[in-house]
From TrEMBL:
Keywords: Cell membrane, G-protein coupled receptor, Membrane, Olfaction, Receptor, Sensory transduction, Transducer, Transmembrane, Transmembrane helix. The keyword Signal does not apply. The chain crosses the membrane at residues 27-50, 62-88, 94-122, 134-155, 198-227, 239-262, 274-296. It comes from the Eukaryota. Residues 43-294 form the G-protein coupled receptors family 1 profile domain. This is Olfactory receptor. It is found in: Cell membrane; Membrane. Belongs to the G-protein coupled receptor 1 family. Pfam families: 7tm_4 (PF13853).
Length: 316
């Protein structure tokens, strides 16, 4: 479990405990985790299948929803199977390299999803403020470039974290009271100075997720300004209704994260297991509920879903 180097002992294997103080409840806690993961996996896979197989859903908004669904599958798969292994089999042992790989995909996918939400806000802005130019602005070529940019931004900004962690010597405790690995949660077990890790993590958060939130807010201010200048009440309702599902997704994605940050900053008396549960809610809530919200709020997706699930094919 350890290796020797010039600074002493460095752990190469860590043990994830799951949710501290609730070890005897792990089997019960695993039930909502498992159900949420199955819903997320099936719901987002079905959403991707519907969008990619129906020519009528090849519009920019649906392609962005498809990207979001893909990110949701990756995000939930990076965390939930590991948590279930801990809950069911007490299989919390994880190597340093696997831990770094896990946190790399968790953080990069989170940034990717934030980027997709920003792009969807931009899509709604173009659709409402410049409806006649919508298809000429958001071409399939531009959508492809946007997808590549989101991918490069997320993986490019998180990649340096691998080297920042690999330089550290983990000579402190190797028992981690969590269900998955994350950057600072792992770095704090190092004997080295981790100020570079802290400041780099903070800078990435500000330049990606926080910047995305600001730009989403600005886009919706401009959207509301355009909507309330529309002469028809019916036109206003239709314009706002097209944004309804996206606003729900934004609240679901950023809400738990903001609440978790506030709890960690000001909730010093909150038990550790509450912080761990909140962190898992961040990983589970959005992937599970996103396909449900889009299935309910988006008429075209709803119609295709009903057709696939309930409409029987005519006999030959």
């Amino acid at each position: 479990m350890t290796t020797l180097n010039h600074t002493g002992i460095s752990h190469t294997v860590f043990c994830l405990l799951g949710i501290p103080r609730l070890e005897d409840q792990h089997m019960w806690i695993s039930i909502p985790f498992f159900v949420s993961y199955v819903i997320a996996l099936l719901g987002n896979s079905l959403l991707i299948f519907i969008i990619l197989t129906k020519r009528s859903l090849r519009e920019p908004m649906y392609l962005f929803i498809c990207m979001l669904a893909g990110a949701d599958i990756v995000l939930s798969t990076c965390t939930v199977p590991q948590a279930l292994a801990i809950f069911w089999f007490h299989a919390g042992e994880i190597s340093l390299n696997c831990c770094i790989i896990q946190l790399f995909f968790i953080h990069s996918t989170f940034i990717s999803e934030s980027g997709v939400l920003l792009v969807i806000a931009f899509d709604r802005f173009i659709a409402i403020c410049y409806p006649l130019r919508y298809t000429t602005i958001l071409t399939h070529a531009l959508i492809g470039k946007i997808g590549v940019t989101i991918f490069l931004r997320s993986y490019g900004t998180i990649s340096p974290i691998i080297f920042l962690l690999k330089r550290l010597t983990f000579c402190q405790n190797n028992i981690m009271p969590h269900t998955f690995c994350e950057h600072i949660g792992l770095a704090k077990y190092a004997c080295n100075d981790i100020r570079v890790n802290i400041w780099y993590g903070f800078s990435i958060l500000m330049l990606t997720v926080v910047l995305d939130v600001v730009l989403i807010f600005v886009s919706y201010v401009l959207i509301l300004r355009a909507v309330f200048h529309m002469p028809s009440l019916d036109a206003r309702y239709k314009a706002l209704n097209t944004c309804g599902s996206h606003i729900c997704i934004i609240i679901l994605f950023y809400g738990p994260g903001i609440f978790t940050i506030l709890a960690q900053r000001f909730g010093r008396h909150i038990p550790p297991h509450i912080h761990i549960l909140l962190a898992n809610v961040c990983m589970l809530a959005s992937p599970m509920l996103n396909p449900i919200i889009y299935g309910i709020k988006t008429k075209q997706i709803q119609e295709q879903l009903v057709h696939i699930l309930f409409v029987k094919q005519k006999p030959l």
